[in-house]
Specification:
Layout (H helix, E strand, L loop, with lengths): L13 H9 L5 H5 L5 E5 L13 E8 L4 E5 L2 E9 L4 E7 L13 E11 L2 E10 L3 E5 L8 H15 L9 H7 L4 H9 L4 H27 L12 H9 L7 H15 L5 E6 L5 H14 L3 E5 L3 H14 L7 E4 L5 H13 L4 E4 L13 E6 L7 H8 L6 E6 L5 H7 L4 E5 L10 E5 L4 H13 L3 E5 L14 H12 L5 E4 L5 H12 L5 E4 L12 E6 L7 H8 L10 E5 L4 H8 L3 H12 L1 H5 L9 H5 L4 H16 L4 H20 L4
Parallel strand pairs: 5-7, 9-14, 9-15, 10-12, 10-13, 11-12, 13-14, 16-21, 17-19, 17-20, 18-19, 20-21
Antiparallel strand pairs: 1-8, 2-4, 2-6, 3-4, 4-5, 6-7
Helix pairs in contact: 5-6, 6-22, 6-23, 8-9, 13-22
Length: 667
């Protein structure tokens, strides 16, 4: 299809053109490919009496009283009661004072918003006032362009492109999998004629994108050069495990064996190790480092934060230095002199193992003979950072670790360039974290429990979804919770605050203070989700738990229960099915599968990284059957590359993804 400038769309002037371009939308084609992240179903309304906290609903109501408006801190709070005959309920808006004149008594409204529990009763929080019915697309927000304007621009772009999408996917593949025609798919993905048409459209788009992504990843991966070959024997593995202070699980032995087998081959290893919190990934990574150094090479381990890098460094000194291996630390906060000494030790080979943050990949860091790179918490790094570390050597072996459990079928798609190992066994004696849902009326009782835990010498995390009060989100921010605990609820305890807006040095100082036991309670945003290892912490409190994904809650829960004490996780929220599911299981892979079905993989990972998550995965993330079909079709096409179907798909994949991957240096 011939591409057309965005400026031809009515309503897109210079300012909006700039805003769209900042979001990566530079043409009419890009705008049509900007698919909805969700849909509001305004085709059916839910009675107020059936609303449950934590869920979003469409309701058809009548204004039943006078509007009230008050100020609280930086907020203007507008409140009115509405009814639909089945129930009367409060509706609250934040910093939208103009609504007061619109909410006249007896006016009928179609509202769409989240139901929340406040003060023992339910309310709708900041719902949108809708004018249309049916399935309404919801797009990712674009700064400077109102949601309604985004929708109108997409609708205009679709009219420009109507009937002009050539269907390059071979007809035989479309017939085999019952896929609809592309023009029908694009139109109904944005403005569906019905729910059935939407599902048909989404399936077609998801199938094509996933297929092209899989083929492109394979084309890149198999064009790689031979890598560092590291010899080892089964006796070396047995010797490593015999020197550890604990017996390995069967899963740890199996995964380290898979890594050793990879490193023995002439091709560079590219393997991901997944394991739930507490499964022993670090011991496996240190085992790979042990084999690399024993084979005559250096190894580098990159962590996303200085706190986690320092923890790994201390672990390496404890576990690897007794085996005759010299470990060193390279992080951004070192002095100029310390940086110079570190660079010299790395270049000369004095340090066998280098542990650090992204400082490991900065210009000027030269390795003597890098044979293995390990990246911890892979989803916190972009593809480019992982690759830049591996480029510090002559095609070293690459190992990435993640404590974010990912269903295996999704792993095949997201990390098609990596082999997957799963540590699916916890060490014996590891206690599960007891999880309880705590509604607001039981808060003070919970605070009493926290005080008793601290009196026993233990520590507590309190995690909040926001740093400070927000105009749009009704949730307890970390700053408010910190002040309440410090001055009112737990004034006798030592309480600290940490969040992502703090300077890195200040943040690390607070985390270190907590780690050393110099603070009883740490109030935090999700900056503590990854990498803080405080065995003495026995309680995790999550404020507004309904605002977090299941996988993220499971990650947070994993911050406690790392010692021998009984551990607890309290979810501050009204009970709902999602949270009840989390409280019923500690199996990270079951939780990840459920979270993916409910939210999609973008939320599963917390961040969207270049080259990792394509639109198709987000479109039908929970359809594991489709993921398997696509995976098998991609393998089938690549086995018969000379066929007309394979050639057509390879050509499409190269146009869509291969150059992007090469630009990101995946290969």
């Amino acid at each position: 299809m011939e591409d057309v400038s965005l400026s031809t769309i009515r309503g897109i002037g210079p300012a909006r053109l700039k805003a769209f371009e900042a979001a990566g939308i530079r043409s009419v084609r890009d705008l049509v490919m900007f698919l909805p992240r969700d849909y509001r179903d305004l085709s059916a309304f839910t009675p107020l009496c059936e609303l449950r906290p934590g869920e979003a609903y469409s309701v058809h109501v009548r204004v039943a009283g006078e509007v009230s408006q008050r100020r609280a801190r930086k907020l203007v709070i507008t409140k009115v009661y509405v009814t639909d005959g089945s129930e009367t309920m409060a509706v609250v808006w934040y910093n939208q004072p103009w609504l007061k004149d619109q909410l006249t008594r007896d006016r009928e409204l179609m509202l769409y918003g989240r139901c929340e529990a406040r003060g023992g009763s339910l309310q709708l929080s900041s719902p949108t006032i809708e004018q249309e019915t049916g399935l309404i697309p919801v797009y990712r927000s674009i700064s400077g362009v109102p949601p309604k304007a985004v929708r109108q621009s997409v609708e205009a772009a679709l009219k420009v492109c109507e009937g002009q999408w050539p269907d390059e996917l071979p007809e035989s593949i479309r017939r085999r999998y019952g896929l609809c025609e592309r023009n029908f798919a694009m139109r109904n993905a944005h403005f569906p004629d019905s729910r059935e048409a939407l599902e048909t459209a989404r399936r077609r788009i998801a199938f094509e994108e996933l297929l092209l992504y899989q083929v492109a990843i394979s084309l890149c991966r198999h064009s790689g050069e031979p890598g560092v070959q590291i010899a080892s024997s089964d006796a070396d593995l047995a010797e490593y495990w015999s020197k550890m202070p604990f017996p390995p699980t069967g899963a740890q032995r199996r995964v380290l064996q898979e890594i050793a087998n990879d490193m023995r081959t002439p091709n560079a290893m590219a393997r991901m190790v997944q394991g739930d919190v507490g499964s022993g990934k670090t011991a496996v990574a240190f085992g790979a480092i042990y084999l690399a150094v024993r084979g005559g090479y250096q190894a580098a381990l990159m962590a996303p934060t200085e706190v986690l890098a320092r923890q790994h460094y201390e672990g390496a000194k404890a576990m690897l230095e007794p085996l005759g291996m010299k470990a060193g630390l390279l992080v951004g906060s070192l002095t100029q002199k310390q940086h110079r000494i570190a660079h010299e030790a790395i270049a000369s080979g004095e340090w066998d193992v280098v542990i650090g943050t992204h400082a490991l990949i900065t210009e000027g860091v030269e390795y003597k003979n890098l044979g293995l790179t390990v990246t911890d918490e892979q989803h916190r790094f972009g593809v480019r950072q992982r690759t830049e570390l591996s480029r510090k050597g002559a095609a070293p072996n690459v190992l990435v670790m993640s404590a974010t459990p990912i269903p295996r079928t999704l792993s095949l798609i997201l990390y098609g360039d990596l082999d997957i190992s799963i540590i699916d066994e916890l060490p014996p004696g590891r206690k599960g974290v007891k999880t309880r849902i705590v509604p607001e009326d039981r808060r003070q009782g919970m605070y009493g429990f926290l005080r008793s835990e601290v009196q026993k010498g233990r520590q507590v995390y309190v995690v909040c979804p926001l740093v400070e009060e927000s105009e749009a989100v009704d949730a307890l921010p970390a700053e408010v919770v910190y002040e309440n605990l410090r001055t009112r609820d737990l004034p006798d305890l030592r309480i600290e605050l940490v969040h992502g807006r703090m300077k890195a040095a200040d943040k690390d100082a607070v985390l270190e203070k907590f780690r050393k036991g110099e603070a009883d309670v740490l109030v935090s945003t999700t900056v503590i989700e990854v990498g803080v290892n405080v065995p003495n912490a026995s309680v995790m409190v999550v404020e507004n738990a309904e605002r977090f994904g299941l996988a993220q809650l499971h990650q947070l829960r994993g911050r406690v229960g790392r010692g021998s004490d009984e551990a607890w996780c309290f979810l501050m929220a009204e009970p709902n099915e999602r949270l009840k599911f989390l409280a019923s299981t500690t199996d990270g892979f079951r939780i990840a599968q459920k979270d993916m079905e409910l939210r999609g993989p973008g939320d599963l990972f917390g961040t969207r990284q270049s080259g990792s998550i394509v639109c198709g995965v987000g479109t039908l993330a929970g359809d594991t059957q489709l993921l398997k079909l696509v995976h098998d079709e991609a393998r089938s096409l690549l086995r018969d590359r000379d066929s007309a179907d394979a050639q057509a798909v390879i050509r499409m994949a190269e146009e869509a993804y291969v150059q992007k991957f090469r630009d990101a240096a995946i290969n």
